[in-house]
Write a structure and sequence with these properties.
Blueprint lengths: L9 H15 L2 E3 L3 E5 L5 E5 L8 E4 L2 H10 L3 E3 H5 L7 H11 L5 E6 L2 E5 L12
Antiparallel strand pairs: 1-2, 2-3, 3-4, 5-7, 6-7
Amino acid sequence: MGDRSCELSRTDAAELQRAIGTALTEKREFFRTAGEYREDGSYVVSRRGADSTGNAKVFENFEALRRLYDRLPDEFDADDVGRTGITGSRRHMLIRHFCEHPAFDCDIERRNPLRATKVVEKAVVEMTAD
């Protein structure tokens, strides 16, 4: 790195390569959903424990998922997610993933029908006496 170099044995280099690969392809499981960073930079939201592609939605990267979330209204449901082109049960899966993943500030407001609310920080209003 930079002007520094380091010589490794073939065994150590292979171990380093495996460790880097693992760091780049992390899968994190939540209560009902999972998120996976793939080697190609894409991010996959899936149902926890599911092995069918029908239970997953692939995004170009995590930022694409973030942009989707940012476009949703403060209170959203499957219809709102569906307006972005996502169909079927993947809409509900994404709502649950937004509520489970710590990068998104939202909570499930209602379970039937499934509806979530973004947590909006309340502005602190300072009152000054004239």
